Amino acid sequence: MMTKLHTLIVDDEAELRRSVISILKSTMPEIEFTVEEAATGREAFDKVKEQQWDLVLMDVKMPEMNGLEALTAIKEHDPRTFVVLMTAHSNLNDAVIAIKEGAYDYVEKPVQPQRLTEIVRKCLEARDLISSLAMSNPVFDDDIESEIVGGSSKMKEVFNLIYRLCKVDTTVLVRGENGTGKELVARAIHFNSPRKSGAFVAINCGAIPENLMESELFGHEKGAFTGAVERKIGKFQLANNGTLFLDEIGELRPDMQVKLLRVLQERKFTPVGSNREVKTTTRIIAATNRNLEKMMEEGEFREDLFYRLNVMPIFLPPLRERADDIEALAGNFIKKFSKQHGRQITSITPEALDMLKSYRWPGNIRELENIIERSFIVENSHQITVDSLPDSIKLAPKEGADKTASVGYSGPLDFDAFKEEMEKEFIISALKANNGRINQTVAQANIPKNTLLRKIRKYGINVKEYTNEE
C-alpha cells in the first residue's frame, strides 16, 4: 500500500512550484502525492482552513503574508500539519527562527532533490511516531479543561502538545505503568523538536548499579576509581544539544537526586574524579511508574527535584482501562508485523478480539504487541484466531469475573492495598493457568522470573497448591 501525502507548495514563483512538484513525484515513487499550489501566505492559510494537509512546503519571502506569519497561523489552526520552509541562503536566520516556532525543517534554494527527499522522509517518520504516541492515549495535565472525543481529536491534541513543546526547552515527566509507551512519548517529542538533529540518549535508572550511576550520567576520568582504566564520556555529554531520557527516575538514590537537581538548576556538572565543570544544553525527559507523591511523603524522593521535573506532566493510562482501544492498537501491530514478517495476515477474528478485550493486560501495550507478534509466528490463516493466542489469554479470568473481584474487595480504602491484592490475584491466576510451572508462567504472563519469585515470597503464595500432578 502506497503512502499518501496531501501536500501544499507555496511560493510566489510558479516556476519554483513546478520544480518542487517535479522533484517530489520523480524521486519518491513510493509516495502518492496529492499536490496543490498557492502563491502567497494568505492563500496558503485559506487552503489550510478549508481542509487538512500533511505537508506544506513554503517560501519565506512572499507578499500579503510572509512565510513566518503563515507558519504561525497554520500551526495554531492545525498543529498536525508539517511545515517545511524554503529559503535563500541569505535568509537562513529566518529558517532558524521558524524551526523554534514549530516549522519541522528548512531547505535552501535552489532546492536540491536529495535534501528535499531526505526532509520529506523524516517528516513521515516523525508523523508515524506521533501517530503511535496518540495510540498510547496520553493525558496532558496542562490545566486546560478539554474532553477528547475520537481518534482524530486525540491526534490533534497530541500534535498540539508537540507544537507547544517545540517552542520551549522545558523538562517533561512521563508517568504510567510499565509497557504503556513512556519511551515512545520521549522519542516523539525529541524527533519532532528543534533538537531532532542531536542525539536521543536513553538510560534506565533502575538497571544501573548504584555505585556506577554517577559515572554513567556524568562520566569519569581515568583512575577516578578502581577499574576506571580510561576516561569515559557520560550520558549528559553524549546527549548535549539533544535529549536525555531518564527512565524509572524514581529508582535514583537520594545522593544522585541531589546531583541531578544541581544539573537541572545550573546546567553544569563535574565528571567523577575531575575538578572541571562541564556545561550542558541537554533537555531532560524523565519517566516513572512509581507513585512519586507517596515517595515524597516517605522521604524517598526530593520535593524540589519533583517540581523541577514535573513542569509538563504526561500520564499514560493502563491498557485495562481502555479496552475500546485494543482493536485499533491490534490493527496497528498487524500492519507492522505484516510488513516486517512478509505475512498476509490482515485482521483478527471477533472471537479472538473479545478475548483480548477481556484480558487485564499487566504488561500493557508492550504485552499486546508481543502477543500479536507471537500470533504471526503461530497463525496459518490470513486472520489472527483464538488458536494462535497464548494460554495466558485463553485461560485468563473473563471481564465479568474481574469486575466481581473488584466489587468484592473488602480491604482498606487504599489504592496501594487494592493494587497489591489485584497483583496477588493475577499471579495466582497465572500460576493456575500454567499448573504452577514457574518458567511457563514467566513466558505466558510476560513477567520477569526474578519479579515473579519475589512476588510469590512477598504474598506467601504456595506454588504447590496450583500444581496438578497426575
Average the pLDDT over all residues and give the rounded result: 86
Radius of gyration: 26 Å
Largest sheet: 6 strands, mixed
Helix content: 40-55%
Distance between the termini: 53 Å
- As a percent range, the share of strand residues is 5-15%
Molecular structure report:
This protein has 470 residues and is α/β, with parallel strands linked by helices. It is built from 20 helices and 15 strands. It has helices spanning 14-27, 41-50, 67-77, 92-100, 113-135, 150-166, 182-190, 210-218, 235-238, 254-266, 292-297, 303-309, 326-341, 350-358, 364-378, 391-394, 399-407, 415-433, 438-445, 449-458; strands at residues 3-10, 31-38, 55-59, 82-87, 105-108, 139-140, 172-176, 200-204, 243-247, 268-269, 278-279, 283-288, 312-316, 347-348, 383-384. Strands 6-13-7-12-9-8 form a six-stranded mixed beta sheet. Strands 2-1-3-4-5 form a five-stranded parallel beta sheet, with helices on both faces. Strand 1 (3-10), helix 1 (14-27) and strand 2 form a beta-alpha-beta unit. It is globular and about 80 Å long. It starts with a strand and ends in a 12-residue tail after the last helix.
SSE layout:
Layout: E1 3-10, H1 14-27, E2 31-38, H2 41-50, E3 55-59, H3 67-77, E4 82-87, H4 92-100, E5 105-108, H5 113-135, E6 139-140, H6 150-166, E7 172-176, H7 182-190, E8 200-204, H8 210-218, H9 235-238, E9 243-247, H10 254-266, E10 268-269, E11 278-279, E12 283-288, H11 292-297, H12 303-309, E13 312-316, H13 326-341, E14 347-348, H14 350-358, H15 364-378, E15 383-384, H16 391-394, H17 399-407, H18 415-433, H19 438-445, H20 449-458
Parallel strand pairs: 1-2, 1-3, 3-4, 4-5, 7-12, 7-13, 8-9, 9-12, 14-15
Antiparallel strand pairs: 6-13, 10-11
